[in-house]
Hints:
The chain has helices at 7-23, 26-35, 40-48, 67-80, 82-90, 95-101, 104-115, 233-269, 281-309, 315-340, 350-359, 368-380; strands spanning 121-124, 140-144, 147-158, 165-171, 183-189, 195-199, 211-222, 226-227, 271-272, 275-276.
Amino acid sequence: MNFELTKEQKAIQKAVRDFAEGEFDKDVALEYELNHRFPRELWEKACELGFVCIAFPEEYGGQGYGMLEEALVVEELCRKDSGLGISIILASFGADLILRCGSAEQKERWLPLVTSGKAISAAAFTEPDHGSDITQIATTAVKDGDEWVINGTKMFITNGSIASYVIVLCQTDPNAKPPYKGMSTILVETDRPGFEASEVGVKMGLKMTSTAQLNFNNVRVPLANLIGRENSGFHQGMEFFDQIRVAVAAQAVGTAQGAFDRALAYAKERRQFGRRIADFQAIQHKLADMATKIETARLLTYKAAWTYDQGKIDPRLSSMAKLYSARAAVEVCEEAVQIFGGYGYMLENEVERFYRDARITEIYEGTREIQKNTIAAYLVGREG
């Protein structure tokens, strides 16, 4: 058992760290945060350097690496800045569905656009009335000649208002029992008539990333826009979530590490009662607990990523990585704010923003309760 990264993996890690150190400016990040603006220029630079979709095959503009290398990229970007980092990584959200399940023609047409920084993608599963339960949905796609006609509403869709195309989970067989056996994923270009996207409102965190409600009013797309086999969309989505949850775990690890870095540096500089606060046992114990949680989360995340790269899709392990890393990130960021005291509560000090950004990791791509359901199902077995 080898816990050491390879020379190539360390080189990737260093390259991403150098990029983030050189390009992620605190004041610039604050400007994006306050203006709720996507950092398009930084995303395009990251694409040029090959950091976006690093696990995609080279023929589609990727680097041909695996999930572990992708986790390293996500971690380093979010360590330097939680908002900028995740905005850049999420710009290709949903494209993995095309890579895993799409036709050769779909891959050749759509994947190079996201790897080259020419298009932003999205995936639309969640609906207003169903939330985490995607075993039943209201969005429908009906065949009419050589087209699909799509109607329905999706909610809390990442990149929804800035994406060039969206992969949409639709009910294509209304008579399927249970309903999830009649779902399909269909690619919808966002310039299609009848498509409308609107931002959901002011969010607690991730203010640089679009989160939108999508409305489909008789949106017509070619039958060829179907991703994979008809009525296999639910299972495609489940496999996609198993993958993306590892990336969310890496996001949480990076966010936690970034908050810890700042708290540790501050504790060594800040003086109270004639001593550095880092010399007080109360602060030392906080730092020790924080470091331990981060290291545990990192090991679990790397194991989940490595397992995925071996071709072993393990929903239990992916859920464990996301569940633990997300909780660790929230707790570490909370303690970072506490170490800063009143200064940690101010927007200009990054730990306040890291704290807000960390919270979403316990909610999106399956809440922590959903992760526990998945883990428990593998422990006790499903009935029947």
